[in-house]
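Now for today's protein:

——
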Amino acid sequence: MESKKYKYLLAFILLSLSILLVYDLFFEAEMRQDVTSDRNFPRIYRSILLLIYGFYLVVFKTGVKLKFNGLLKAIYGLIIINIIFGGDYSISVLISLSKVLFFFFTYLFFYRVFSIMPLTSKKYVKKFVLFSIISLSSYIVITRIGNISGLTKIYADNNAYILLSFMPFIYLLNFKRKNILLLILTIAIFFSLKRGAILALIIALIPLVFHKDRANKYTIPKWIKNLVFIILSFFIISYVLDNFQDIILERTADFSTENTEDIGSGRGMMYFYMYDDFLNSSNLFTYLFGFGYESVQLLMKEKIGSGLMAHSDFLNFVHSYGLIGLSLLSWFILHQRKIVSRLFKTKSQYFIPYYMIFIIFSFKAVYAGNFEQQNFSYLLICYALLNVLVANQKIRI
C-alpha cells in the first residue's frame, strides 16, 4: 500500500516547483546579468529541495536499473568532477555544484517516487502539468499582446522551451481534453516567436498525423478534429504574422545574411569561437577532456565581453568536456532513439510521448542546451515518469 507520507512529500515537491516556476516567470534568467537579491529566494528554495532530494534518495531503495539512468549518471558525474576539480573552491563553485546536483537529483528522486507509487504519482503530476501549461501559456500570450506595464515583450520568449517540456505529459497522462491543452500550448509557442521551439513543436506533432491510436475510440471523427485544429492554427498564425511582422522580420533577417557568424541571433559567431578555440588548442588532454566547466562563458567573456552560455549541448560538451563528453552525449541521444524505435515496433502506448520528448531534447541539444539549463528539470521529471511506465511494460530501456 502506498504510504501517505510519500504522497504528501510528492505534493509538497510539486507545489514547490510550481511556486518556483511562477516566480521565475517574473525574474527571467535572461534578465539576470548579475547576481541580485531577487535570486536569493529561488536559490535558497532549491537548496532546501536539494537537501530533501538527497535525504530521500538514501531512504528510497527501489527502481529498476536502466541503461538510460546509467548514461545520465555518467554525464552528470563528468560535469560534477569538472566543477569540483576545476574550480577554486569559492562560493561560485558551490552554487554551480548545487545547481547541477539539483538537476540530477530531480530525475533520481522522481524516478524512485514514481517507481513506488506510479498511479498516485500520475494524479498529482497531472495537476502540476495542467497548472504549468495554463500559467506559462497565459504569461507568454499576455506579454505578447497585452498592455500590462512592464510586461509586454518585443523579443522572443525563452519560456517557450519550458512550456515545450510539458508537451509529452499531455499524451503521457491521458488528459480528457488533451486536444484543447495541445491547442493552448501550440498557440503560446507560436506567440513566443521562438524559432527553435516552433520548429521542435512542428516536428513533435508529426506522429499525431500518421500514428493511429488504436486504444481510443473517437465519438467525433478524427478528420473533423484535425480539420478544426488546422483551421484554428491558420487563424492563429495569420494573427501572429499580421500583428508582429516587424519582430518576425527581425528574428529571421539573419537567415538571409551571407555572414554565417550572424546566423541564429549571433549563435554562428559563438559557435565559430568555440570550434576555433577547441581546434587550435593543440593539446591532446584538451581534445579528450575539454577546457572544463563554464569554459564557454569564460571564452565568450573574453571574445565579446559577455559570459554567454553555449546555446548548444554539442558544442558545450566538446569545448568543456572534450571528445569524451561529446561521446557520452551522443551515446545518450542514440540510446533514446533506440528506445523510441523499440516503442514504435512494439506498438506501445508510450511511443508518442517518448517520441515527443526525444525530439524536444534533441532540438534543444542543437540550438539551446539542456544539461546546464534551469528549465531542464521539467523535462527530467517527464523522463522519470516515462521510464518507470515503460520499464513496467517490461520493455528494455
Summary: The mean pLDDT is 80. The chain is about 70% helix and 0% strand.
